[in-house]
Amino acid sequence: MMRNTPACFAEAFTRRRAAACAALVALTLPLLAQSAQPRPAAPVDLSGSWGYAVGNSFSPTGTAQDAGTPADGVPYQPWALALMKSRKTMTGPNATFNTRNSATLETTDTTDPLEQCTPNGIPRILTWPAKFKFLQAPDVVYILYEYGPYWRPVWMNRQHPPADELDSTFFGHAIGRYEGNDTFIVDTVGFNDKTWLDDVGRPHTDKLHLIERYRRVDQGRLEVTLTIDDPGAYTSTFTFGPRTVLARTTDFGAALWTCTIENNKEFFKDIAAPTLTAPAK
Amino acid sequence: MRTTAFLFMTVALGVLAPRAVSAHHGAAGYDSKNITVLKGTITEWIWRNPHSEVRFDVTDDKGEVRHWSVEAPPPTMLTERGWTKASLKVGETLTFQINAAMNGAPVGILRKVVLANGQDLWAYPPADLLLELTTGAKPNP
Question: Cβ distance A213 to A231 under 8 Å?
Answer without folding.
Answer: no
